[in-house]
Recover the amino acids of this structure.
């Protein structure tokens, strides 16, 4: 359960001749938030904040971001430390339970998760109802929703039941994602094995041949993909996480709430951004064309945008981008793959970070800039980039949902609006209208 506040002070809001006393809540890092929960009910006054850029919709203990300093913490742990020393399942446990697991707890969590990776055969029958050229995000969203039909013995009114759902989702999302990939490729399905780890199982389910030949998991690829999962596991109250909380606030079952998050993630301004980066690098083509491209970006009359730079939250170098940049080079070297896209990306980053135009606008590489290059080298097709993001983010989504429900009672989300349409007017029959 989330405590109300670390500290509290007061503020006064003056509107015309009216003075309103408001509480100011102070968070763990000393940042103030004006508490306006009762403002409309007591005064009839609303706040106006499109995009919720200045509005805290909840209190949480899961993730902290300081965009001006490039800081990202999961439960207080820097993302750099978790990515360098931890695993995705260890991170998922941390997000879910609030503390890092002991060796025994981690072993049990890994065993529980891997044992639950198989899905019901009827789930595969649902998949086969779709066309082969269906976008995999449609397939994944549908199958996650359908999970609720096969998890009928779970009582989410209890903490134990909610934890069970969380583990079930974290366990089954890689299997669902791999099934979607194999289905759109027209390849036979590969089932998980309990003698393999979480990420290793996922890679095998995606890429093992269908003729029964042994599949050797490349440790460089598995390690890099596990870190990508860690980096994407949670990111505070972004659009998809806020969607999960908003949907969950109605009391809907958790599988449906997570499905809503998957839908929100699909947009190119959110989870689909790394696809746009790869398309941009393909358009640029070579290092020699970078200068011309950047001049087009600066031209307000041009439609060109510098994809993978800048972030709604970060006004500094995205800490996740540094980690993925290093992994890109390791993966390509480990697979002996030559990527012209990586060469263009490195030079584009170097030039942009030295250009006063981009420096003055605080445009630094974000997590999407190098992730598409890395995933392509691993063998994933472009349309699978966002599904992989959804796979990783499921642990954060379900942790956020559980935190909200554990803290109950639920308050249904109901934003207000600033109405600027017509005032009351009289209806005229169609024959009398001019």
């Amino acid at each position: 359960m989330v405590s109300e506040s670390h500290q509290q002070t007061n503020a006064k809001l003056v509107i015309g001749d009216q003075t309103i006393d408001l509480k100011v809540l102070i968070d763990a890092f000393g940042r103030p938030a004006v508490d306006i929960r009762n403002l409309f009910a007591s005064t009839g006054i609303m706040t106006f904040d499109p995009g919720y850029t200045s509005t805290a919709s909840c209190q949480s203990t899961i993730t902290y971001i300081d965009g001006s300093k490039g800081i990202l913490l999961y439960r207080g742990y820097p993302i750099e430390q978790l990515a360098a020393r931890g695993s995705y399942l260890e991170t998922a446990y941390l997000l879910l339970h609030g503390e890092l697991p002991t060796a025994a707890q981690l072993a049990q969590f890994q065993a529980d998760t891997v044992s639950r990776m198989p899905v019901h055969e009827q789930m595969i029958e649902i998949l086969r109802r779709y066309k082969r050229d269906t976008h995999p995000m449609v397939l994944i969203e549908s199958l996650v929703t359908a999970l609720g039909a096969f998890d009928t013995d779970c009582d989410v009114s209890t903490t134990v039941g909610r934890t069970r759902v969380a583990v079930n989702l974290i366990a089954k999302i890689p299997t669902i994602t791999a099934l979607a990939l194999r289905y759109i490729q027209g390849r036979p399905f590969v089932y998980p094995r309990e003698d393999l780890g979480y990420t290793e199982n996922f890679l095998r389910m995606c890429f093992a041949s269908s003729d029964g030949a042994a599949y050797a998991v490349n440790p460089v690829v598995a390690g890099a993909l596990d870190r990508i999962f860690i980096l994407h596991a949670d990111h505070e109250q972004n659009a998809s996480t806020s969607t999960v909380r908003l949907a969950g606030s109605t009391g809907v079952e958790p599988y449906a709430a997570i499905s809503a998050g998957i839908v929100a993630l699909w947009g190119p301004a959110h989870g689909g951004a790394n696809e746009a980066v790869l398309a941009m690098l393909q358009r640029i083509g070579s290092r020699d064309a970078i200068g011309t491209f950047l001049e087009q970006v600066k031209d307000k009359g041009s439609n060109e945008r510098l994809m993978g730079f800048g972030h709604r939250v970060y006004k500094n170098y995205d800490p996740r981008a540094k980690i993925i940049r290093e992994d890109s080079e390791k993966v390509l070297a480990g697979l002996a793959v030559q990527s012209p896209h990586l060469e263009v990306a490195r030079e584009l980053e170097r030039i942009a970070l030295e250009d006063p135009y981009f420096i003055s606008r605080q445009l630094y590489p974000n997590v999407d800039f190098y992730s598409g290059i890395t995933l392509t080298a691993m063998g994933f097709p472009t349309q699978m980039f966002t599904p992989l993001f959804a796979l990783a983010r499921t642990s954060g989504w379900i942790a956020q949902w559980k935190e909200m429900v554990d803290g109950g009672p639920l308050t249904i989300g109901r934003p207000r609006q600033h109405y600027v349409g017509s005032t009351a007017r009289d209806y005229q029959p169609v024959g009398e209208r001019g």
